[in-house]
Amino acid sequence: MAFIPAPNIMMVEARASVGGQNVENRFMLNALHAVAPSDLESAAINVWNWWEIVYAPLLPATVLLREVVATDLTNQNGQQYTYAPDTTTVGTAVGGALPNEVSVCVSLRSSARGRSSRGRFYSLAVPALQMADANNISATYRSALQAAGQTLVTNNLTIAPITIVSYFSNGVARPGGPVYFPVTTALIVDTVVDSMRRRKPGVGT
Q1: What does DSSP assign to residue 52?
Q2: How much is the pTM?
Q3: Tens digits of per-residue pLDDT, 80-95?
Q4: Domain residues for 19?
Q5: For residue 1, is it within any domain?
Q6: Which of 13, 32, 55, 80 sits between 20 and 30 A of 25, alpha carbons compared?
């Protein structure tokens, strides 16, 4: 897809490794003004801190956070900032991990209706001890992961709100450029595990 400018938007990628596979969670943040280098730095550090303090306790030790990269999407050659203060930030949940492709979907909701106004991210791994049965995570783990997603949303309200950037509507590019929907809620709609097949060793990168 050809690059479509998204003024004021920063793409923040939390890049990690799981069992030799490169994985990431990607979020769009709205600076609410022209993106400055300090905005990129603040966004990257804020997501790293959230990952380390809030998210890591829900992930097994097989997950290693390598870097958080913030990119200005105002133009194709927008500035970028990388935050990588250490090489030791890993998940701290007790016990082993389920296979790489097992994940949980966290839905990111705005106050608008329709698929164009929603987003999601998939947990980077699932601790084996957090399963209620062969197909479902425990209600406790669901609540904790959902709360972690909500913390990310809340923490960024004063820095740059998590935002859904909708480039298309009814299969065609939106006239005048993308439309932004501020995220208000992180939600997990069920306890059934999801699959991210590209995270399977030998399939993805």
Answers
A1: I
A2: 0.94
A3: 999 999 999 999 999 9
A4: 9-199
A5: no
A6: 32
